[in-house]
Amino acid sequence: MITIDNYLDSHYIHRSNWLRAAVLGANDGIISISSLAIGVAAASETREPIVLATVAGLVAGALSMAAGEYVSVSSQTDTEKADIAREMQELQDMPEEELQILAQIYEKRGLKKETALQVAMELTEHDVLAAHIRDELGITEISQAKPIQAALASGAAFTVGGVLPMLGVLFAPVKGMEYWLYGFTIISLMVLGTIAAKTGGSNIRKAILRITIWGTIAMVLSAGVGYIFGVKV
């Protein structure tokens, strides 16, 4: 027997919050650390400064990513709470007007005027605030901001992503390391794109192409900076 919970679980939208943060974090970790390592490797003849730069970048990047995600999503949460508080006050001050607003929303979605009003009345009787939060403000359990979840997903994903090019820094030959790092990073980005596409139910080829092109641009520019300045470390 198909239930609403089983039906929703078969879709991918409920994964959007943590998936976005995780993919963003992992992608940023791979590209940022690779770009940093490639830039330093292009101007270095020894491994130590490359390792030092990548370790510092990995730690700082993960913390910055988590903190930035938490602050950003918290701001969204504050806005949602403010809107909900305002909606609660409006429901107390002008319940009839709010009922009409709800009915108009359903009417615009295709219901007849009488049907829309009847639906609005029934939903209002069941849970008036929930109905307005969902249909007037557009806030649902799926889309609702979760700062801690986003911060943890983003910071952890950045760390995992950053560790991949770090392995290249530790084991690849110093001479020509930037080329080894580029190849290793492209493979890592392709794997990330595949995982993200499968998890989110999107087109794998499109995800790989998008993530590879932008990753290549970032790394080429970083290597160019190292070559341009040409400071041997």
Roughly what percent helix? over 70%
Quick one: biggest sheet? Answer: none
| Gross geometry | elongated
Poorly predicted sequence stretches spanning 5 or more consecutive residues = 1-14
Mean pLDDT, to the nearest integer, reads: 80
Succession of helices and strands: HHHHHHHH
| Distance, first to last CA | 67 Å
| Radius of gyration, CA atoms, in whole angstroms | 24 Å
How many helix segments?
A: 8
- The fraction of residues assigned to DSSP E strands is under 5%
Number of strands: 0
What class do helices, strands and sheet pairing give?
mainly alpha
Give me the secondary-structure topology.
Elements: H1 4-9, H2 16-41, H3 48-93, H4 95-108, H5 113-135, H6 147-171, H7 177-200, H8 204-229
Question: What can you see in these coordinates?
Answer:
This protein is mostly helical and 233 residues long. The protein has a domain of 158 residues. 82% of the residues lie in helices and 0% in strands. Helix 2 packs antiparallel against helix 3. The N and C termini lie far apart (67 Å).
